[in-house]
Specification:
257 residues; 10 helices; Peptidase_aspartic_dom_sf
Length: 257
């Protein structure tokens, strides 16, 4: 079995090396956004859901294979493991003291440059199917010279059939997941404390980005979300990325095998 898997992997890698992108992006970081914008003009726009988002990025090769990154664990006894990251241990003190200076992502850039790349309007209403759908894989990209990892997800408040598209910064340096006040208001989420929502179909405690912080306009997928759902990135070069919900993606692959 291992020999067969190795042969398949080699063939896949060989195919990728000898079949360049049909619409290659510029290699210079300064041309990254322009390249994505040009690509966006060629493909369908606007997007209306995860399926069309996948089609928008379909000219890029899929990763050959992906292995789950190990969780941050420590051995409690021979053969046993204890997860040392417990989302329930995130205190309000830690969250309230968190701040990060992000000057290149604003309400305007979310609605213009970043929306143009994804082909999805920021805070646009999602279809009922996308609002209730659990996602295996979602495409993203690195925005701007600071290489901000951006990904679009549908956020749903759980009280009705309406969900809205939110453009997130994947920030593994953040202890919690935040939504801007405008995003909270559009989705119908409370702004005075932690509340529950679904992001890409997965239930998550979210908080409003503090209005007096340096990231008030930014929506961040924090380490709580990434760790809980094993939300892992595969960087494909030239600013492209795919994000995998490892448990669900691995299960889907097993069913197809």
């Amino acid at each position: 079995m291992s020999t067969l898997a190795s042969q398949r992997t080699f063939k896949a890698v060989w195919s990728l090396l000898h079949h360049p992108l049909r619409h290659p992006l510029g290699h210079a970081p300064l041309n990254l956004l322009r390249a994505f914008s040009n690509q966006a003009g060629i493909l369908q726009t606007p997007c209306s859901g995860y399926d069309i988002l996948a089609q928008r990025f379909s000219s890029y090769p899929n990763p050959v294979n992906l292995y789950a990154l190990p969780s941050w664990k420590k051995t409690a006894h021979p053969g046993g493991y204890v997860d040392i990251h417990d989302p329930g241990e995130i205190s309000d003190l830690k969250v309230n003291n968190y701040d990060v200076l992000i000057t290149d992502i604003t309400e305007n850039t979310l609605r213009t440059e970043i929306s143009n790349v994804f082909g999805i309007d920021y805070l646009a209403k999602a279809t009922e199917n996308d609002a209730k759908r659990k996602i295996d894989i979602v495409s993203g990209y690195l925005y701007g010279e600071a290489r901000r990892a951006m990904v679009p997800c549908v956020v749903h408040n759980g009280e009705n059939d309406e969900g809205y598209w939110v453009h997130f910064l994947v920030d593994t340096g953040s202890p919690a997941t935040f939504l801007s006040k405008k995003a909270c208001d559009a989705i119908g989420l409370r702004t005075d404390g932690p509340t529950s929502a679904t992001i890409a179909g997965y239930t998550q405690v979210v908080r409003m980005s503090p209005v007096d912080s340096h990231f008030a306009d930014v929506n961040t997928l924090g380490m709580d979300y990434c760790d809980t759902y094993k939300f892992n990135a595969m960087f494909l070069g030239n600013g492209r990325a795919k994000y995998y919900f490892m448990d669900r993606w691995a299960g889907a692959k097993a069913l197809k095998a």
